[in-house]
Design brief:
This protein is α+β, with helices and mostly antiparallel strands and 250 residues long. It is 41% helix and 32% strand.
Length: 250
């Protein structure tokens, strides 16, 4: 139960990182990197990496390493929380946090549950509720964090990943047409896809995936023949016509 709660947290962070970069979930990504605050947390979820891969639609999940290679941090005080304690010292605390090594302070906060600063000749101690931590991903990455985890997605999409994403969009449109036609989930189908060259190439490259996911025993490029149920849809701004016919008896 604890391990699954951690997995849900990781997946939620990964989806948030996708959303922030406007990368649709059906677009596969190469890799997700997961950094847990404590080794015991990593041990809980490392054996469930296949589930995380599936939920985040990534080819690989890698645990551990140095998160600071992929993200940068900034810290500022929670003014409402520290105001009653430090009063006129608050602006100096803000300046000290802005000038400090944010990654080092975050590690100190994780390890000790607090950070200690020397500000205007005074020792200042701040807890997790008194600091606001902002995470920024470096170029070609997207990231999100919680107190227990940082999830970083590699966002570069090469031609192979793009083709796979288009294939998954085709699967989605075919499944929607199956639902419109109220087909049984075991019904085999024949499918025709009339699409521009890039999407037609994705169909050919991922024919097996599309057929398996949609139970298509026949998968043809080109215009659907007459008498076939057809829907027009849009994928990445391109018009696509999907034709479908149930094959065989129920």
């Amino acid at each position: 139960s604890q391990a699954m709660a951690r997995v849900r947290e990781i997946v939620s962070l990964g989806l948030a990182a996708r959303s922030a970069q406007k990368i649709r979930v059906r677009q596969p990504l190469r890799r997700a990197r997961v950094f847990m605050a404590h080794d015991r947390l990593e041990e809980q979820v490392a054996g469930l990496s296949a589930l995380i891969e599936d939920e985040l639609n990534v080819h690989e999940v890698v645990f551990g390493g140095d998160a600071d290679r992929f993200v940068s941090w900034s810290l500022k005080p929670n003014f409402r929380a520290i105001g009653p304690r430090y009063g006129k010292l608050v602006p100096a605390i803000k300046k000290a946090l802005a000038e400090a090594d944010a990654a080092a302070l975050r590690h100190e906060l994780d390890a000790k549950g607090r950070i200690e600063l020397e500000v205007a000749g005074r020792s200042v101690t701040l807890g997790p509720d008194e600091i606001e931590i902002t995470l920024s991903a470096r170029e070609h990455y997207a990231a999100a964090s919680s107190p227990d985890a940082v999830v970083v997605l590699e966002t570069e999409i090469d031609d192979a990943l793009r083709a796979e994403g288009l294939a998954r969009e085709l699967v989605n449109r075919i499944q929607a047409l199956r639902k419109d036609l109220d087909l049984d989930f075991t019904d085999r189908i024949a499918v025709w896809i009339d699409a521009p060259d890039e999407i037609a190439a994705a169909l050919e490259a991922h024919r097996e995936l599309i057929a398996r996911e949609t139970l298509a025993v026949r998968l043809e490029p080109g215009a659907p023949p007459s008498g076939v149920e057809t829907r027009e849809t849009t994928i990445d701004g391109s018009t696509v016509r999907v034709g479908l016919r149930r094959e065989g008896g129920r």
